[in-house]
Amino acid sequence: MKITVLITLNVLLIMVTNNTFFVYGQNFNNINIFENIFENLKNRIIDLTKSVEYTIDIKADQIFPNDTIKNSVLNKREPMEYLIPILEYKLLGFDIFATDIKVRTESSQIEEENKDKLRIEFPIMQAKNVNVNNKIFDLNYENIDLSSTYTIYDSELDKFTIHIPVYVAARYLPK
Fold this sequence. Notes:
This protein is α+β, with helices and mostly antiparallel strands. The chain is 34% helix and 43% strand.
């Protein structure tokens, strides 16, 4: 176990310093090398977190306020901009209640688990009133920007799996 950790750290250090050697190979300056190593390490950690996401399952009737919008997005795959009046779900032990959510959708067909599904991007997803609470916290936000989230629609279950990148959710952690 310890050997695996050491090997992993060495590989990461080699990856981070690989660019540094060529940049500073001729003008040796320890301060710049270490600054660059830490900057590269920080950037790689940030890149790793961008691929990590939370997922939640929501029934389709929460995403679409009426059948006309649902048909346009799911069957005609038309880009749409509309308001979701209320959205309620649970995430990581928190009850989340949001209202007045402005969204813009862009749909595309995908194959997942050998089934045709629909991926819906939300380049715009902004909620005006959001309450996040559990037994310890009771947080209220006036404006939340959850743009960059996307959903996968399963027509057999008539539900969405919403994917929220960690870096998007982390903006709203208690400080």
